[in-house]
């Protein structure tokens, strides 16, 4: 598990976008426990709105979410100069490298496979927070 | 089917049946009547998988108090006291369930996940939740929530319960779980037999049917059902004739036994079956092969005397691998597993089973015995092992009892010899070959004698 860099003055903000309440609660719990500030969104447009208002450090987003899917959301965020620095971690059940590549093509910074697992989750978030380089498959 | 991650059951043979173990991140159901071994199996899984960073959560409901479950586990060698409270977290949620109803299960489980992040979760017993549910709808709602939670979080869960076959058709959990393993207990005349059966395993193949097991000090000791191997052309009975070791017998069947073949020696008591079988086994040793003599009949001391007479050496110096099994006490499944383990370990080339009639005593199910014998013979052929079975009766071979499993042994046999002891007017031993495959056959009746150095056929 990687916690936040102690040199940071304010905690990194992770916006979790997932329609599954169990995923939101468990991922949110583990991230909060690790020192992150956590925000939630239930669908793609709700997430887009919150990204523009809150400017989270990391967007943890499922592919299959209502109204605007996770990959489309990812493209919109990365194409907007105001939000393009938000790190995007695509968090999905969909196994296989093809989807991971799609996530990368959609400008995601990392792909994390579901289900929620504390160590992998914290590792993935810490990685994109600490490393500016994109394209990590976890 | 794609490769999937697995978690071990803690028993290598059970893992073989499951083609590698339970699928990781799955929901599994272990069903069986009271006393069938569910909790032992679950504890075996728990202790095997529990590690410092791989925690196990064991929830007891209203079936047994947690103290009793832990105390019971200490009887087994898999129990490691150091893991209690560090890698295995027992939690009794029976009181909460009784007070607040089944809807409390998911919040309790979620709290436990947040606290311990368990990689394995066991609910013992899950079935009793039906008794606490106010309605079927209540149970379904809780199950939906539970399935959602256990799917969202990376864990492998096991739900235990003394479900009946009828329950399996109507209880909603049977539809949502990824695997179902049933433990059965069958009462025989003087002993019980236990069986493990996989009823469902999503995204994976498995070995179907009933697999014998017993509860031993190490936990469940499982004996996978022997299935017929896939026979390729290269595995068809060999092209090499090997000597039987019995003076005069090879001439009757065209020069010897085909390597990888099975020969049945049938006859009444005292006709010389064991002597022929011993000579066959010892002949292998003369030619540098290892021979295994599976003895289900003879007193081991008597057999050692016979070996000494035939070889002029003590049993321990004869080079013969001996496996003595009391057919009264052991399940046929365990005999087969032990037999195969020895064959593999010692690279055995000749096998004697003396006698298959005694093996039949260990089989409660005649069809099961037949399937075992058939698969056994096929495995021997594929492995190039030449086998000899003895059978103490003549009737089974004459066709009169061809419906019986032992009667049907005739079609599995490549060679069949009948031994007889007649009085005309002097006592006389006779042998005749009633079947041979792929060789010239001498159909005549031959007299033979039994001397200290073995059988001599004229």
Secondary-structure map with pairings?
The complex is a heterodimer of chains A (138) and B (458).
Chain A: E1 13-17, H1 21-33, E2 37-41, H2 44-54, E3 58-61, H3 70-79, E4 87-92, H4 97-105, E5 110-113, H5 118-130, E6 136-137
Parallel strand pairs in A: 1-2, 1-3, 3-4, 4-5, 5-6
Chain B: E1 6-7, H1 12-17, E2 22-23, E3 27-32, H2 38-49, E4 56-60, H3 66-73, E5 88-92, H4 94-100, H5 105-116, E6 120-124, H6 129-132, H7 136-152, E7 156-161, H8 165-170, H9 173-176, E8 179-187, E9 192-201, E10 211-216, E11 219-223, E12 241-242, H10 249-252, E13 257-258, E14 262-267, H11 273-286, E15 290-295, H12 300-311, E16 321-324, H13 332-346, E17 348-354, H14 356-361, H15 366-383, E18 386-391, H16 395-398, H17 409-412, E19 415-423, E20 427-436, E21 446-451, E22 454-457
Parallel strand pairs in B: 3-7, 3-8, 4-5, 4-6, 6-7, 14-18, 14-19, 15-16, 15-17, 17-18
Antiparallel strand pairs in B: 1-2, 8-9, 9-10, 10-11, 12-13, 19-20, 20-21, 21-22
Helix pairs in contact in B: 11-12
Give an account of the 3D structure.
The complex is a heterodimer of chains A (about 140) and B (about 450). Chain A is an alpha/beta fold. Helices cover about 40% and strands about 20% of the residues of chain A. Chain A is globular. Helix content of chain B is about 35%, strand content about 25%. In chain B, the strands form four sheets. Chain B has a nine-stranded mixed β-sheet. Chain B has a nine-stranded mixed β-sheet with strand order 16-15-17-18-14-19-20-21-22, with helices on both faces. In chain B, strands 1-2 form a two-stranded antiparallel ribbon. In chain B, a hairpin with a 2-residue loop joins strand 10 and strand 11. Chain B is elongated.
């Amino acid at each position: 598990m990687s916690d936040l860099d102690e040199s940071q003055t304010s905690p990194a903000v992770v916006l979790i976008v997932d329609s599954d309440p169990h995923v939101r609660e468990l991922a949110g719990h583990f991230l909060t426990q690790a020192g992150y500030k956590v925000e939630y969104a239930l669908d793609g447009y709700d997430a887009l709105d919150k990204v523009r208002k809150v400017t989270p450090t990391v967007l943890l987003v499922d592919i299959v979410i209502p109204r605007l899917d996770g990959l489309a959301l990812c493209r919109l965020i990365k194409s907007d100069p105001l939000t393009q620095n938000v790190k995007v971690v695509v968090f999905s059940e969909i196994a296989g490298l093809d989807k991971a590549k799609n996530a990368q093509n959609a400008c995601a910074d990392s792909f994390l496979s579901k289900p929620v697992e504390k160590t992998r989750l914290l590792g993935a978030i810490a990685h994109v927070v600490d490393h500016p380089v994109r394209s990590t498959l976890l | 089917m794609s490769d999937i991650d697995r978690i071990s059951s803690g028993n290598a043979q059970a893992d073989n049946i499951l083609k590698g173990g339970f699928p990781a991140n799955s929901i599994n159901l272990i069903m069986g009547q009271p006393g069938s071994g569910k909790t032992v199996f679950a504890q075996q899984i728990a202790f095997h998988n529990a590690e410092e960073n791989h925690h196990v959560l064991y929830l007891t409901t209203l079936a047994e108090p947690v103290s009793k479950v832990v105390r019971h586990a200490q009887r087994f060698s898999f129990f490691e006291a150091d893991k209690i409270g560090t890698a295995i977290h027992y939690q009794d949620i029976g009181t909460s369930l009784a007070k607040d109803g089944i809807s409390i299960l998911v919040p309790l489980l979620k709290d436990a996940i947040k606290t311990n992040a368990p990689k394995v979760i066991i609910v013992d017993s899950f079935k009793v939740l039906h008794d606490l549910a106010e309605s079927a709808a209540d149970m379904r709602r809780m199950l939906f929530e539970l399935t959602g939670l256990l799917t969202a979080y990376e864990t492998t869960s096991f739900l235990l319960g003394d479900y009946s076959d009828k329950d399996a058709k109507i209880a909603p959990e049977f539809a949502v779980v990824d695997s179902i393993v049933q433990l059965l207990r069958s009462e025989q005349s003087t002993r019980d037999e236990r069986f493990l059966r996989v009823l469902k395993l999503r995204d994976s193949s498995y070995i179907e049917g009933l697999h014998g097991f017993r509860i031993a000090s190490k936990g469940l000791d499982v004996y996978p059902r022997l299935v017929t191997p896939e026979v390729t052309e290269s595995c068809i009975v060999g092209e090499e004739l090997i000597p039987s070791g019995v003076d005069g017998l090879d001439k009757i069947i065209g020069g010897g036994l085909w390597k990888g073949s099975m020969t049945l020696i049938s006859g009444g008591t005292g006709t010389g079956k064991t002597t022929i079988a011993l000579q066959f086994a010892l002949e292998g040793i003369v030619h540098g092969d290892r021979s295994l003599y599976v003895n289900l009949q003879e007193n081991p001391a008597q057999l050692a005397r016979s070996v000494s007479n035939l070889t002029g050496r003590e049993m321990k110096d004869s080079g013969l691998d001996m496996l003595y099994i009391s057919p009264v006490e052991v399940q046929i499944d365990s005999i087969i597993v032990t037999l195969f383990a020895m064959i593999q370990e010692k690279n055995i080339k000749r096998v004697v089973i003396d006698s298959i009639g005694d093996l039949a005593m260990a089989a409660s199910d005649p069809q099961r015995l037949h399937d075992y014998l058939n698969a056994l013979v096929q495995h021997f052929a594929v492995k190039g092992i030449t086998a000899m079975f003895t059978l103490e009766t003549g009737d089974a071979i004459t066709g009169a009892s061809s419906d019986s499993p032992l009667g049907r042994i005739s079609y599995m046999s490549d060679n069949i010899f009948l031994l007889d002891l007649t009085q005309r007017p002097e006592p006389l031993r006779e042998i005749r070959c009633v079947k041979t495959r792929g060789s010239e056959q001498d159909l005549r009746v031959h007299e033979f004698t039994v001397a200290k150095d073995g059988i001599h056929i004229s």
